[in-house]
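Loading example: each entry is read as two labelled lines plus one structure line.
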Amino acid sequence: MPTGITGFDEIADGGLPQGGVTVVLGGVGTGKTTFGMQVLAKGAIEYHEPGILVAFEESAGRVVANTSGFIWGGEALKDSGVHVIDAQLSQSVERSGEFDLSGLLAIVAAKAKQVGARRVVFDAIDILLSCLGDAASIRREAFRLRDWVNESGLTAIVTAKADESGERSTTDFDFLQFMADCFITLHHRVVHGIALRFIRVAKYRGATHSANEFPLVITRSGLELAANTSMGLSYPVSAERVSTGVERLDAMLSDGYYRGSSVLITGVPGTAKTSLAAAFAQAAARRGERTLYVSFDEAPDQIVRNVASIGLQLRPHIEDGTLVLKSLRGRAASPEAHVAEIRAFLAEFQPQNLVIDPLSALFQNGFDQVSEGAALQILDVAKSRGVTMIFTSLLGTATALNEQTPINVSAIADTWMHVSNVSHAGERNRTLTIVKSRGTDHSNQVRELVLTRDGITLANVYAAGGEVLLGTLRWEKENADQRAREMTKNEAIVRKQRAQLELAETKFHMAALAQKVAIQEEELVQLKKRTTAEVETRVGEDQERLERRHADETIATAPPSGATAEGAEAPNGRDRQ
Amino acid sequence: MSDDAKQDVRVRLYLAGDAPNSLVALANLRAVIAEYADVRADVEIVDILTDPERGLRDGVFVTPMLVKFEPSPVRFVLGSLCDRRFLLTVLGLHEPPRE
């Protein structure tokens, strides 16, 4: 028979033995009555099985009032089919002789018939049994109760007080566990000042069950088993990427985080873990995705104000309901209780993204098993819902040096980024390294994390002479590089201009030469013309001279054209003469 | 004891059918009352097995349960009433003189 207690049915072979007796033994304040009431409430609400609780220790009104803190509890219980019978034995009742439970059982049977009950809880049966006095009577009545249950067909829970260890009943009703078909113990332990509750199914007739002890928490949803033993690794897997909220970081992770993956950001205080987480939250909210931001020991307003100083505006997203900020007090409750709280938030708000800042708040008391289990559970829950999850983890300065996380979470996280402070040359600067990122081609380079009023950016880190340059040194190096680049650029310009100049000069020279050629050719033409004219003149003069000497031979007169050739021959001819 | 001192006793006994303790309680109560002929006894028997509603209404769940109304104050006695002297005290009766 399912109990409706989260996680319990998984360890108890599907629930409590139908038609049998389950004995719940536990110390004061371990949640016995709550266990009973919750089984009844869930039975009535979820399985439409009305139930009856027979209260021996507290008044009916008190029992109901005590459940009003639970979402399934309070006055509404009666309407949903949970009936409480006030069977306290008044203080004024005197005892004389023996009594038995036949009357009680008859009344319960009548009531069960009247309301159609399927489940019945006898709460704090030890109060009544101890009145019986002798062990033989106690035993007889306990077995009477069991026989009655078996005949009635009801499924019964009988609770009884136990000593501190939770294993033995205070009144030595050890036989209760022999009588029971299922025997459950609840107990409390205070570890480092924090109360932890545990549940164990010590016996379950004819069923396979886990006999381990499991952490138990009480939240608004009631009792919840913190264990998830049956949860496999069958998470929904997405290839979709979501932005980290930092452009350059997206590039380093080749397009951001995988949707539904878990991202761990580790670092010592003041390394901008919260800023990175808030950047993611803002980016998610901007995409219109419901995002839950759980912070420990830091009020929502404080976070909003602080990240506003680096240009992250969360307020508008909180106002339109896409972003929900919840603050928990780290030390106020056990890690298990925090897990339950976060689970409840997840169920209530159904976010697509979850930020837990810092997850290490669960580890108030060192790296114990409970805290680690709690952290892993949050991861499991988020993953099974396909929620993309960013969790920061504060590291002590000592552990930060070798990049150790306190928890196996670093092994389970899909992406692990480490931010650290590097002090050099009188400055403290932040660096970011992607330690690992499953299924992502990611940069292995260290980047400087720079927080500005406009947001978070990552800057290249310079390695000069085997030293990593950050902050001012990086800035100087960047400037020097820039200058060098500019110088080279200028040089090129000058060289080009010079070349152009030279070319122009050459062209000018060429033009000048061409002009010279033209002039010289013209000169030559003029010269030729003059030569011809001179020759004709001379021939004329010679003729005249001959005539004057009355020469008997005539001189052949050169034709007017082609005079140059004729004329040139003429002197020769004359020379031959 | 004179007639002037004749007393009224009003009790109610809740039983669970023929459960042994219930039968014993009833027998013990009747035996005591029978001894006092001069006592006007008003004994109401409520069998929870046949009238469980009554037990629920009166808030009596465990049986046998004797409720004494008169003489006041009201007293509740749980059990088979095996202690005769105690029963007499509860009913406000005195041990009759030995003959």
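Residues 471-549 of chain A form the longest helix (79 residues).
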